[in-house]
Design brief:
Layout (H helix, E strand, L loop, with lengths): L14 H24 L2 H4 L3 H8 L7 H6 L6 H11 L5
Helix pairs in contact: 1-5
């Protein structure tokens, strides 16, 4: 097992591990963004967040209000842009 407590303080992380985590983050974020650009019509219609508020794993009391509010379409373009272009800044 990898245990952070077993590493003495002041020891730098191996460069291969750092770059592997950066590469993994880049691939996951870019892949999620590409799915949103090429994928389901709910991202083009800006209704993806409506489905999220309706089907999230642990709904809270605000879920019903967010699902029925006109603001529920607002986060979809931001999520799409964030996951499509932010990985290029890594």
């Amino acid at each position: 097992m990898l245990c952070v407590d077993a590493v003495p303080a002041g020891v730098p992380a191996p460069w291969a591990a750092v770059w592997a985590l950066r590469w993994l983050t880049f691939r996951i974020m870019l892949g999620a963004g590409m799915i949103k650009i090429r994928g389901d019509s709910c991202w083009r219609d800006l209704t993806a967040m409506v489905y999220h508020y309706q089907t999230q794993p642990v709904p809270n009391p605000l879920s019903w209000f967010l699902h029925h509010s006109p603001v529920s379409r607002a986060p979809a373009p931001r999520v799409r842009r964030r996951e499509s272009f932010l990985p290029l800044a890594l």
